[in-house]
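User: Show me a protein chain along with its predicted structure.
Assistant: Here is one chain, sequence first, then structure tokens.
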Amino acid sequence: MKVNKNIPLILKTYLLVISISSIFRFILFFTERDRIDFQIVSIWTIIQSFIMGIRFDIVISGYILLIPALILLIKGIINVRNRLIFNFLFYWIFILFSISFLIAAADIPYFNQFFERFSIGAFEWIENFGFVVNMILQEPKYFLITIPFIVIEIIFFRSLKRLFSDKQQKKVQVNLYFNIFISLLFLSIMFLGIRGRVQKKSPIRIGTAYFSTNPFLNKLGLNPTFTLMRSYLDSKDKRNENVHFMDKRKAIHNTRKLLNIGSTEFKSPIARSIAPDSLLEIKPNIVLVIMESMSAAKMKRHGNEKNLTPFLDSLSKNAIYFENFYTSGKHTFNGIFSSLFSFPALYRKHPMKQIKKYCGISTNLVKNGYSTTYFTTHDSQFDNIEGFLRANDFQHIISQSDYPMNEVKTTLGVPDDYMFRFSISEIDELHKKNKPFFVTFMTASDHGPYYIPDYFHPKSKKIKNQIVEYADWSLKKFIELSSKQKWFDNTIFVFVADHGAPISSTYEIPLAYFHSPFIIYAPKIIASNIQYEKIGSQMDVFPTIMGLIKQPYINNTLGIDLQRQNRKYVIINNDSKIGVLDTSYFCIMGKEDVNLFKYKELNTTDYFDTESEKAKEMTEYAKSVMQTYQEMLLNGEVTLHNNVDVK
């Protein structure tokens, strides 16, 4: 009894596309193999990850092949021979799978950077399309995947062409009822593959891939087209437009209690007047350096043996240093926003895309007689930075257009050390105006495309280590140049990362991506070598600086002065999941599950069941704080108009 010959054709197509998807997965595995301790992780666990990947590949393949399969099965049953149909199906399959393979190729450098599979987060910068394209074209590592992609596309085209050759057009007599039954059975199996699971309660989800204690192998099993589509659908879900963790009154009550706020004269639920014990006769200048990708894990004092940051390591021992300090998110815009305006990151929301007025550090310093300046190495329009900062009382923005064109080396503009050298004369001019200044720097060299000037000679062999050496050296040169200026003795220098880097990944949320140095250096103003073990957040940068300069202000943020107050927990945002930390516990809060770890011990045991009350307390904290911020955004309470926004 002859079977519909289009069934083998569909199966061969499945085999072809799943094999190609597995090749991309193997390339990703090869580029990230350093994340696996082969003495701990068994070969079988790695194989399981690839098997899980096939499951997700079958889901995406099923969606793409469903219509072609239906047409081919009907065509085989009624025994119709039509070349136009074959051509249509060929190009349908070729084009859609080519798009899927392109996503898989783009996913590799994306994962290398963010330790996340491809999602709509990759399109955050679509408004700066030309900038991003140039940045990609100038980074050699992106070309390493371009060549395999082109080769794979050629092989795919030729193999698919062979499958859909004229030989497949020959008529074959089949038993009608038997082949209807076989075709329906085949379609049922396809639907099962699309669903991904036989359990009735739920189809396959991203969480299905998390089968082991190794976060990389868990994520390796995902299909990037699946994660992209899932993130897109989640973004369109109205429930994701604004966070809805709990009743707003309960959230605000909890947050006010955490911040020790009693009665308030302001409309904003968290605004409170801050008055220093005493006032300084001369207001100190402030220089805030937000360092690109400077994870604490790159420093020797945090266990890195490569001696990549000798200057920061030395500086941290002669300054105020916070050992347990974390950034709010994993993107530069998160780091800039939280450092300057002291609010958390809310999943994938870009806080600076919509211009709102906040009661941040720039606004408060202007009210206290400071000038405000922001330096960046590249185009100031990227991420809507300039417009947002100008709307929030930054008076001067120095960017790529202000530097000599011959000093612009990549899409990321000038090298870090040139920006610092250029800034000295600009700061001198600010100093001559006889008013204190607040200057913020956003470095960029430790981000691809990497550029190291000829006059710097690194010791490391790998470019990723060389660029860290260069970034550290640039900071050293800046302090050396500043120390020769008249304004140095009365200036407080603050160093913090915009975010870290996924150097290690013991947990699903890589803590190295959020653990940041926080250094306050002012040898003529404050005591040196003060080390804090307490937990701290990027949201605390602004209030802590205000505490140092001893000026009165109204704190309408979720940040605290770390020298005078203690933070109970830190919230970190990994786009799709939220992390909550104290000095011992790390709680990972997903939309459907919660995990609790003892991260200081690098313990991968989930303590959620045995210490559920601790997990509940940590998640309640995060939900309260984020819900409060959400309500303030909705009610226009993130700013105080002329500081007289009373009830």
